[in-house]
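Pipeline run #58 for the internal structure catalog. This entry was flagged by the ingest filter as a single-chain record with no existing model, so it goes straight to prediction. Upstream metadata was stripped on purpose; only the residue string is passed forward. Reviewer on rotation: M.T. Logging verbosity set to normal.
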Amino acid sequence: MPGAVLGMNSQSPHPSDKQFSHSSGKSLVVKIILLLPLALLVTGLSIADEANSDRTRIEFFEKLYDIKIEGIKPIEQYDDPDSFYSAIARQVGIPRKAFEAVNKKLNWRQDDDFFLSAMIKGGPVGDYWGVLVTKFPTALKKAKTNEEKLKLLQKMEMKMVLIGYDGIVSFPEENKKNKKEGK
């Protein structure tokens, strides 16, 4: 029908009704034309995000960290899923971030007296990496007797570090303490 506007009744509006004037109809069509590509883009992005939100796929972490991850097999080919996540974490620099965090917070560093070790826990559920950082006396590598090793192990320290997918670092003990104190 001549003069009909999308979404309105099919009767022609009264010529004196400015709400349904010809220029208003053009304006609506222009708005639809401009907004349609935006709506399609947003819809397309959300569909693409769903495809890339599978945390059991390497592509998820490549997109998250904007890095090409190489040499890692699909998760199904590992006996233990932790091996899959640990391999990814090493490539995206998670142990280094954990070491930097304990250095900043606790003044732990690798030097002639101590070395640091990281055990990484990742998975398909949380939005973070759990890293158990252990500080060992360097002399442990050269200890010969069990008695000597046990004495050196008394100097060993451990700290759990959480590194969010967003890069935010936290320490679980502090999180519990802050919740108890109401912070």
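catalog note: Helices lie at 22-51, 58-65, 81-92, 94-106, 146-153, 172-181.
catalog note: The two ends are 65 Å apart (CA to CA).
status: ready for reviewer M.T.
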